[in-house]
Design brief:
mainly alpha; 4 helices; single chain; elongated
């Protein structure tokens, strides 16, 4: 796959490889962040759209 990708680049290898590496690095970092998150934080964030403003004020 990478061999075909590089053969069709025709002089733009640096740009293509750098953009692919930034893309991969971003998703690897997001994956690591998600794996390190606590379950309570994930539950809190998933319930945010469902909570009313009154719930947070204690009314």
């Amino acid at each position: 796959m990478f061999k075909q990708f590089l053969e069709q680049a025709d002089g733009n290898q640096g740009y293509l490889l750098s953009s692919m590496s930034v893309f991969l690095l971003f998703f690897i970092l997001v994956g690591v962040m998600l794996l390190r998150m606590k379950k309570e934080e994930i539950t809190y964030m998933s319930e945010l759209p469902l909570k009313d403003d009154n719930d947070e004020r204690g009314n």
